Amino acid sequence: MNKKITLNDILDPISPKVFFNEYWGKKHLIIRRNKFKNLFTWNDFNKYMNQYPVMKGLQILDYRKEGDGRWCLDKVRNGKLKLPMLSKQDVYDQWKNGKSIVLPFAEYQNKDIVDICHEFERYFRNGQSNVYCSPRANSKSFPAHSDQTENFLFHTEGRVKWTIYKEFAPGKPKEILEETVLEAGDLLYIPQYQYHKVDTIEPRILISIHFANKDKQSLSNFKISKLGDSGRLKWYNWSPQRFYDKKGKKIEHHYRMPANNWKKKYFRDKI
Ligand SMILES: [Fe+2]
């Protein structure tokens, strides 16, 4: 349980050596497998969304015709985006009407996401994690575009269709290299500047964890930092460790009265 997540675990079954030599900065990589499906599930989404509006960030895609189409909670709050503040019911209606939702800064939603960030940040600069959620098929996501970061996309719920283009920015997307459907447990790596597009074919959640490269990073002079050197705050386990098993070893969960026993204690006598 406390085992650290290594880059080998993250890229399994591709070795870090093969990844950096053959894929990093050059071409996309699809790893079909059954791992990290619990990073952010529908249950997590439910809990997160029910906290609205007490949350750091939330974006609704395809909310309006102008600009990039997004409604951003933080920008509406601080006045940078001149759009009305939405009520919880409004946001729910948007979701029910098929709009995709992005939850930015999701690094600390789950210990595994933090651990994955820590491990990646030995090889890249400090990153960020966004969760992309869509309620149904044909929810609008992003058209063909490229990103300035190295992108790792962890699929946790549903399936999405990916289109990967041959071209990198500043060129234009023209030739399709691959069209494929990925599902929960799969990982997709897209190098910075490579064009790509997502189509939603059913309700889905996918987590993007993305990083800029370290200064002057190259295969011939490849810098790997020590775990924790990125300055990212670690995940603490806040559970009290007050309980011990028979061998005197600390156990972390709270003692809970076995079901049914409490009734006897309190309702032994007639009141
Ligand atoms: Fe992207």
**Which strand-content bin applies to the residues?**
15-25%
Radius of gyration: 22 Å
Whole-number mean pLDDT: 92
Bound molecules: fe (ii) ion
Helices, strands, pairings?
Blueprint: H1 7-11, H2 16-23, E1 29-31, H3 42-49, E2 59-60, E3 71-72, H4 73-77, H5 88-96, E4 101-103, H6 111-120, E5 128-134, E6 150-157, E7 159-168, E8 176-183, E9 187-190, E10 194-200, E11 204-211, E12 243-244, E13 250-251, H7 261-266
Antiparallel strand pairs: 1-9, 2-3, 2-4, 4-5, 5-11, 6-9, 6-11, 7-8, 7-10, 12-13
Key descriptive features of the protein:
271 residues, alpha+beta, Jelly Rolls, 8-stranded antiparallel beta sheet, 3-stranded antiparallel beta sheet, 7 helices, 13 strands, binds fe (ii) ion
